[in-house]
Amino acid sequence: MANEIAVPLLPCASIDEMADFYQALGFRTTHHQTRPNPYVAMQREDLHLHFFGMPDYLPADSYSTCLVLVPDIAALHREFAAGLRARYGRVPLAGIPRMTRPRARKNAGGTSGFSVVDPGGNWIRITSNTPPPATVTSPLATTMANAVVLADSKGDHRQAARILDGALGRPAAGDDPALGEALLYRAELAVTLSDPDAARLALQRAAGLPLTPDQRAVLDELSD
């Protein structure tokens, strides 16, 4: 059959906190109830996310996730980022809630994607539904792809930082075309891990490179 719609139903500690967060991302509340069970339904255009409240729920222990396929990853991330800056003064990269930046995912065939971890600890994995473009590979790009799987997909930021540090420390890294992007990602991992010294060192090294305008914007934001 055609035209089926699947709506994720995800847990949270507070439906009001969830509504506030998703409103910052451009969603609207289509249903809200406190009795007999806490429940809130959020909608952004054709995207529907529903949440139910649970007593004594711990977001940090959540394993809940869902996959959202969209045609334009970059545009949606820009809109989400603008909403988060308006709500929090910045795009949160550490703790709960937080949001990653769009990157090619090795474990998704190179398709670009980013993740939103909401106040309920739910991982909303947003992935492009268009074929990925051809990419130029290099030793550092390969290591970064592995780091993205560890951090952005599995949540193991510490191991991602460890393998990226090993690659960035090799002499050949200085001539690798992926150096700028890798340093910016290392700085982001450092922010997530609450390691300001590592973030500062990565950003200082990246600042001396010929970055693209988008990379320069990321550098400026991470430096704030």
Describe the structure in your own words:
It is a single chain. The chain is α+β, with helices and mostly antiparallel strands and 224 residues long. The chain has 2 domains: 9-128, Roll (2,3-Dihydroxybiphenyl 1,2-Dioxygenase, domain 1); 139-223, Serine Threonine Protein Phosphatase 5, Tetratricopeptide repeat. 40% of the residues lie in helices and 21% in strands. It has 7 helices and 9 strands, in the order βαββββαββββααααα. It has helices at residues 15-24, 73-88, 139-153, 157-168, 179-192, 196-207, 213-223; strands spanning 9-12, 28-33, 39-44, 47-53, 65-70, 98-99, 103-105, 111-117, 123-128. Strands 5, 6, 7, 8 and 9 form a 5-stranded mixed β-sheet that branches. The chain has a 4-stranded mixed β-sheet with strand order 1-4-3-2, covered by helices on one side. β2 and β3 form a beta hairpin. The radius of gyration is 18 Å and the shape is globular. The N and C termini lie far apart (50 Å).
Topology:
Elements: E1 9-12, H1 15-24, E2 28-33, E3 39-44, E4 47-53, E5 65-70, H2 73-88, E6 98-99, E7 103-105, E8 111-117, E9 123-128, H3 139-153, H4 157-168, H5 179-192, H6 196-207, H7 213-223
Parallel strand pairs: 1-4, 5-9
Antiparallel strand pairs: 2-3, 3-4, 6-8, 7-8, 8-9
Helix pairs in contact: 3-4, 3-5, 4-5, 5-6, 5-7, 6-7
Keywords: Antibiotic resistance
Protein name: VOC family protein
InterPro entries: Bleomycin-R (IPR000335), Glyas_Bleomycin-R_OHBP_Dase (IPR029068)
